Queue: 2 jobs
Job 1
Amino acid sequence: MKGDPKVLEALNSLLADELTAINQYMVHSEMCDNWGYEKLHKSIGKRAISEMKHAEKLIERILFLDSAPVVNVLREIRIGSDVPKMFSNDHDSETAAIKAYNAAILLTGDAKDFATRELLEDILKDEDGHIDGIETVQDEIAQMGVQFFLSTQVG
Ligand SMILES: [Fe+2]
Ligand SMILES: [Fe+2]
């Protein structure tokens, strides 16, 4: 089925965001593993895999809409040098993703592509969950202090 060009452009742009997030989160997850923060390693790794599933769904949809997924475009990958900086950078990524998904959802409505809209709405709910998880950690760090928080994340 031939897709609307503007919708396809938006899907490829979201794909670039997802591919960037996968890389950033994977590095953050492995840095936490390297420091011995096993719980953070697992939770950030889980978030990276969730973004991978989003990328998979976007690729699938772009192919269905008779177009070619662009997988060689990445945005700036922002690696945090410590845990609070990681979460701050990841918070920025999720904020940008939520904004971009909301804008793309409006676009799919204009193009009357409601099946794509439904897919994007499902992904948007996951992004809401991601930012919720990040903000929980940021609150815990603010309330416990970073050293105590990190002591709860070891193995
Ligand atoms: Fe995502
Ligand atoms: Fe996300």
Job 2
Amino acid sequence: MAVDDLSEPILPGPGASDYERYLRTDELLSLQPEPEKSAHRDELLFTTVHQSSELWLKLAWHEVEEATTLLEDAQLGAAIRLLRRALLCLQFATGQLDMLEQMSPWEYQVIRKKLGHGSGFDSPGFREIRRVTPALGQVFSALLRERGLSVVDLYVQGREHEELYQLGECLIEWDERLTLWRMRHYKVVSRIIGDEVIGTQGTPVELLGGLIKQKFFPELWDARNRLTELAGSAEDT
Ligand code: HEM
């Protein structure tokens, strides 16, 4: 029997090796402006951060959407597993914003001229996150209703509803991590282009600061207020 030469590619498609064919690295690595043809050499840094952010955001919203479907089928453990992945995606997307602060604010103005009316409001990843997140909140509320629990009940009786409690914590962390991304993004934007200017699509940067207050799951945050009140009134009696 002939022995396969393991160094030879066997997958179809372009690329010198199976690694390059499977991951389509030729295509992927041709998507960034080549430094020698760029308006500024830091375009490579700028597009690398944006494109990789889009990949992490894509993985995040896919996992959130799938988790929501699993929850509709009351598969809490499986959903929590996917939500933990989505949380990590946001952590990575937030962490890599640091790289943008390695650009000079003056030199960035050269890159900015090439962006047209391009704006993060049109980020496909963030748009999908805004689309899938409310459904996650709705399915969580439905699970609470089925068990006759309020959010406060869930936290007071957490040990009796372990998986649902863990799910609630995943949801508030999702909300928190989206806010942390927004806070970090706002500071990066302020540091690079300023906090009193208008964005490439006409949005004042100040408005980005306002979005930090937005909550996807306000009832989960408000439950903390109720718990503190509850603990206070219990002490008074
Ligand atoms: C130098 C780096 C960056 C600058 C100067 C910048 C600037 C801005 C500005 C000015 C806005 C307001 C909308 C407008 O353009 O008029 C905005 C929004 C936004 N940007 Fe960026 N941005 C940067 C990096 C990034 C990165 C790496 C991402 C990753 C996907 C991103 C995603 C977004 C999103 C999602 C919004 C909408 C904000 C929200 O819904 O909270 N931006 N950005």
